[in-house]
């Protein structure tokens, strides 16, 4: 199903429209210049099955993996209080995230007045009330410009 916006209102409005149209409890995002590896949805989604208290689960992209060596990534495969980690860096790339739709909607969704870092801002708001989980492997390849 294709959802069309009447005019370009930015990524936040498009993502919010997708969240409203979705009928599933979990929603994953894929930006047009990124690709999921074959096991992305199954392996990252399994974290949400394993931890019902987690609102956001994320895989990794190759460029973020070095942050683990620097101690900037939360431990993989655990439900964590993400706020302290998010204050260090955004370890949740948009295309690597799978979210609980109700949690995102209850938080107000993406701020449509933001065109950059809108995902990071949402993660920070979600982290105040919810736990996050991170998969330990790369599950998304990111386009670079």
Describe the structure.
This protein has 145 residues and is of the alpha+beta class. Helix content is 33%, strand content 19%. The protein has 6 helices and 7 strands; from the N terminus they run αββαβαβαβααββ. The strands form 2 sheets. The protein has a 5-stranded mixed beta sheet with strand order 1-5-3-6-4, sandwiched between helices. A two-stranded antiparallel ribbon has the order 2-7. The two termini are 28 Å apart.
Give the helices and strands as they follow along the chain: HEEHEHEHEHHEE
Q: Any low-confidence stretches, pLDDT <50, length ≥5?
A: none
Helix coverage percent of residues? 25-40%
Q: Main sheet, how many strands, which sense, barrel?
A: 5 strands, mixed
Structural class category: alpha+beta
Notable traits:
single chain, 145 residues, alpha+beta, 5-stranded mixed β-sheet, two-stranded antiparallel sheet, 6 helices, globular
Mind sketching the topology for me?
Blueprint lengths: L10 H11 L4 E3 L6 E2 L3 H11 L3 E7 L5 H4 L9 E2 L2 H4 L10 E4 H6 L11 H12 L1 E8 L1 E2 L4
Parallel strand pairs: 3-6
Antiparallel strand pairs: 1-5, 2-7, 3-5, 4-6
